[in-house]
Amino acid sequence: MMLLPCPWCGPRNCTEFTYGGDAGARRPQNPDALTDEEWASYVYLRDNPRGPHDELWQHSAGCRRWIRVRRDTLTHDVIEAAPAGARSAG
User: What is the count of structural domains for the chain?
Assistant: First the structure.
């Protein structure tokens, strides 16, 4: 069982959360200027990192707030968690 430390509710089972994706992904500044291939690449292609990685999670079965989690994708160890607007120390 993986526990995610919600800053508002405390440690909770990961089943209470919804994965929101890569916290480092940035929406293109001018999406209208992208080709169909560039837009498809932004929407569908993501890195699959091995090791520490920043992710967004929503506490959907709890306070419904978004958190930013730094998690090791190999071991599933949670390194840190903070409100989504906070910057990661990693």
Answer: 1
One-letter-per-residue 3-state SS of the chain: CCEEEECCCEEEEHHHCEEEEECCCCCCCCHHHCCHHHHHHHHHCCCCCCCEEEEEEECCCCCCCEEEEEEECCCCCEEEEEECCCCCCC
Q: pTM for the full model? A: 0.82
Is 90 a member of any domain? no
Q: What is the pLDDT of residues 2-32, one digit of tens each?
A: 999 999 999 999 999 999 999 988 889 999 9
What is the pLDDT, as a whole number, of residue 46? 85
Note down the domain range covering 51.
3-25+40-83
